[in-house]
Amino acid sequence: MTSVALSGLVCLGLVLPSQADDVDLNESLREREQLFGDWGGARTVLAQRGIIVDLQATQFYQGVTQGAPDNNGKYGLKGDLFVTLLGEKLGLWNGLI
Q1: Which of 24, 36, 90, 93 is a Cys-bridge partner for 50, taking CB atoms 3.0 to 4.6 Å apart?
Q2: Is 74 helix (H, G, I), strand (E, B) or coil?
Q3: What is the pTM of this model?
Q4: With 60 as the cut, is the pLDDT of residue 38 above it?
């Protein structure tokens, strides 16, 4: 298990979810602020304690659309995990991010 995955499990283990903020399945994916909602309240509790977690994915396709005999395009996917630690809320000093 990688250290990032282990750190994520530890962070989620420290959180005691308050109320579940379930994802509204009737809401369009484009309208959702977060794809998976509030993780049963865990995202909100982490933010209140100074830990902001954000996952982002970008998909792209690159290739010639017309006019070339070889039109083998390439598909790509890039994923990012951003964890922001707010020092003041974590009991450190004001202004530490």
Answers
A1: 90
A2: strand
A3: 0.56
A4: yes
